[in-house]
Amino acid sequence: MSILSIANQNVHGLVAYQPGKPVEETARELGLRPEDIVKLASNENSLGPSPKAVEAMQRAASGAHIYPDGAAFALRSRLAAEHGVDFGCTVVANGSSELIELLGHAFLQPGAAVIAADYAFTLYPIVARLMGAQYVSVPNRDKWIHDLDAMLAAITPETRLVFITNPTNPVGSMVTQAELETFIARVPEHVVVAIDEAYIEFAGEQTDSVQFVRQGRNVVVLRTFSKAYGLAGIRCGYAITTPEIAQLLNKARSPFNVNSLAQAAALAALDDKEHIARSVQMVNQGRQMFARFFEQMGVEFVPSHTNFILANVGNGVEVFRKALAQGVIMRPMAAYGLDAYIRITIGNALENTRCIEVLTNILADRQQA
Ligand SMILES: *Cc1c(COP(=O)(O)O)cnc(C)c1O
């Protein structure tokens, strides 16, 4: 008997999430030192974490024998104050990835449906299918931008969750506050709208989606410490939502889902606004650098509101392999059905320059061929 036959068939049918290629593995394969590898594949922050967060983790380390505060009282109080909502409107989790999973646990079962836009974060379909729900992917308008009217039209009595990623990953596009307001005003009551704002700090024009929560709408705003805060390794994200939904998510999570070092780091990171400002400035400069480069090379790219940029290089996997051989890790987009594209995380000036050099050579070869 194969053990697979007794497995949950929803799990059995999944394709595991493919993370960006790790630096150590690449260094080993190429015979290079890890320091010589430039990883621009996972939208991490090249500035690193706030020094205040690092200090807080060092202080917290000596208390690592004690279970963390399961209610994350200090962190959630701080987040509530930051967003002008009640403590009971907050949920913290082991990365916003865990919140996406908790939304699945709380709202999905066989027969339910989930709506998201084309080229959405691959975790959404994984969670939908894990829960036995149907996953509906709605084509974008102008190829790259969430078509909120079409997403609204796709809602059926079975729909439980709609994911809006704003700004989007892996595209980098964004919808406006006015578009969000029109959409939320028309969403029926049996649907929960998750607005995933993993990249919101990098957006040119900030939207205010927490106001929908204050208005009592079934909205879950998802935020993370992984991107602008430079804390992807500690795994901490949070949701701002209505007390009813927060309670459901808090019931569905495991008791100590955010560890004590992560709680300390996140709390300290919230105090370092200067670090966020520097991260945003670095990304703004890098985005301009890549945009100018792609314009000069005649390479199509999507104007980005995030810390990465999506570009049409003709053959994404081939460019990924060639850049990898020179120690620069990018992200090919074939898994999203975007075979011609690569996604490049904006790094620091040195990393961006190195990446542009490597790309210049690869693209020049291509034009000669
Ligand atoms: C990076 C990212 C997240 C955040 O994931 P964490 O689990 O918090 O590290 C969430 N949503 C999207 C679309 C992302 O790109």
Characterise this structure.
The protein has 369 residues and is an alpha/beta fold. The chain has 14 helices and 12 strands. It has a 7-stranded mixed beta sheet, with helices on both faces. Strand 5, helix 8 and strand 6 form a beta-alpha-beta unit. The protein starts with 8 loop residues before the first helix and ends with a helix. The model has no long low-confidence stretch (mean pLDDT 96).
Count, helices? 14
The total strand number stands at 12
Largest sheet: 7 strands, mixed
**What is the chain-wise order of helices and strands?**
HHEHHEHEHEHEHEHEEHHHEHEEEH
Q: In percent terms, what proportion of residues is strand?
A: 5-15%
Flag low-confidence runs.
none
Helix content: 40-55%
Q: Which distinct ligands sit in these coordinates? A: pyridoxal-5'-phosphate
Structural class: alpha/beta
Q: State Rg.
A: 21 Å
- The termini sit apart by 53 Å
The strands making up the biggest β-sheet line up spatially as 2-8-7-6-5-3-4
- The coarse overall form would be globular
Quaternary state, please? single chain
Round the mean pLDDT to the nearest integer and report it.
96
